[in-house]
Design a protein that fits this description.
The chain is built from three helices and six strands; from the N terminus they run E-E-E-E-H-E-E-H-H. By secondary structure, the chain is of the alpha+beta class. The chain folds into two domains: 67 residues; 29 residues, no CATH class. The chain has a two-stranded antiparallel sheet. It binds zinc ion (2 copies). One zinc ion (ZN) binds next to loops.
Amino acid sequence: MGIDYYSCERCGEGFPDVIDYVYCECGNVWCCVECALEDGFKYGIEIDEDGEKVDSFDGATCKYCRKEDFNDSELLEYSLVLLKTTREQLVTKLKNSK
Ligand SMILES: [Zn+2]
Ligand SMILES: [Zn+2]
């Protein structure tokens, strides 16, 4: 089994999948709880053997899968539609404006 590397959705920090990272059912991952909470991460609830409610990654949500916010690539795609342009055209415009 090899080690996979993820990058934190919030701070962009790369980290190996062997640390205690935080993940959401939608596939987003964060390097630490602080970063996850910044992105509106909420634990799911699980009932343990003692009938106690405990935090669980099962059923976890973040602001992205609750559609309260969108990541930059989604925002970019939508702005391109609004601007009736393409990424390539924007790149050309930005180049010319430098
Ligand atoms: Zn992070
Ligand atoms: Zn999510």
